């Protein structure tokens, strides 16, 4: 399986000004934007780390997911949440010849942790030997930073600040997450029961 971002997060979508305020950096000077590129890097690192930990896309963007087998004949759980729309669904054979699947044959089941694609036709189309299925969709809490859930936005700022403040500390090479960030992310992490079941 392979999940690929089709649209990247633009620098202009990142909360650089809020991050400066969080870091209590001075303003009103001629070199106010001098560190912007560095701050953008730490914000991106924080977003990436939080998305990996929670399985959630923070800012909305397009993804393509390619896979060679179905997890279920009637329901396929998607690899990231929250999914807002399915753009295209197709099956490719070993020669990469595409068959577009009519949208009437499936539907999106939205879920906070495990959105899924549901077959309306009893079962999904067969994926040919050597072929693959490809699903293009949009996922993310919002397209604008101001519409991101407040606790997630705060977690990004806190983790970005942690990376910034300890950027020269080689003792943190293995990485760590401050307790405050962990607490903020707790409700976004999928729960697991015995035997690997999710709820």
Account of the 3D structure:
By secondary structure, the chain is of the alpha+beta class. Helix content is 25%, strand content 22%. The chain is built from four helices and eight strands. It has helices at residues 16-23, 36-54, 150-165, 179-185, and strands at 2-5, 61-67, 75-77, 83-92, 98-100, 106-109, 116-119, 132-139. Strands 1-2-8-4-5 form a five-stranded antiparallel β-sheet, with no helix packed on it. Strands 3-7-6 form a three-stranded antiparallel β-sheet, with no helix packed on it. Helix 1 (16-23) crosses helix 3. The chain starts with a strand and ends in a 14-residue tail after the last helix. The model is unreliable at 193-199 (pLDDT under 50).
Overview features:
8 strands, 5-stranded antiparallel β-sheet, 199 residues, disordered C terminus, alpha+beta, elongated, 25% helix, 4 helices, 3-stranded antiparallel β-sheet
> Roughly how many Å is the radius of gyration?
20 Å
- The poorly predicted ranges are 193-199
Structural class: alpha+beta
Q: What's the mean pLDDT score?
A: 89
DSSP helix fraction: 25-40%
Name the quaternary structure. Answer: single chain
In the sheet with the most strands, the strands line up as 1-2-8-4-5
The helix/strand series, from N terminus to C terminus, equals: EHHEEEEEEEHH
Q: How would you characterize the largest beta sheet?
A: 5 strands, antiparallel
Number of strands: 8
DSSP helical segment count: 4
Overall geometry: elongated
């Amino acid at each position: 399986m392979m999940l690929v971002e089709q649209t990247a997060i633009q620098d202009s979508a990142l909360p650089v000004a809020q991050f400066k305020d969080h870091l209590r950096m001075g303003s009103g000077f001629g070199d106010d934007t001098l560190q912007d590129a560095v701050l953008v890097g730490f914000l991106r690192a924080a977003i990436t780390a939080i998305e990996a930990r929670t399985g959630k896309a923070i800012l909305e963007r397009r993804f393509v997911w390619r896979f060679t087998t179905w997890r279920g004949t009637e329901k396929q759980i998607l690899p990231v949440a929250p999914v807002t729309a399915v753009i295209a669904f197709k099956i490719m054979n070993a020669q990469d010849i595409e068959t577009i699947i009519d949208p009437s044959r499936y539907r999106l089941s939205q879920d906070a942790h495990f959105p899924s694609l549901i077959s309306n036709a009893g079962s999904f189309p067969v994926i040919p030997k050597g072929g693959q299925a490809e699903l293009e969709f949009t996922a993310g809490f919002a397209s604008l930073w101001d519409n991101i859930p407040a606790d997630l936005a705060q977690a990004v700022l806190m983790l970005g600040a942690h990376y910034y403040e300890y950027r020269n500390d080689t003792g943190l090479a293995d990485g760590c997450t401050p307790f405050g960030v962990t607490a903020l992310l707790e409700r976004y992490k999928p729960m697991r029961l015995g035997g690997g079941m999710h709820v």
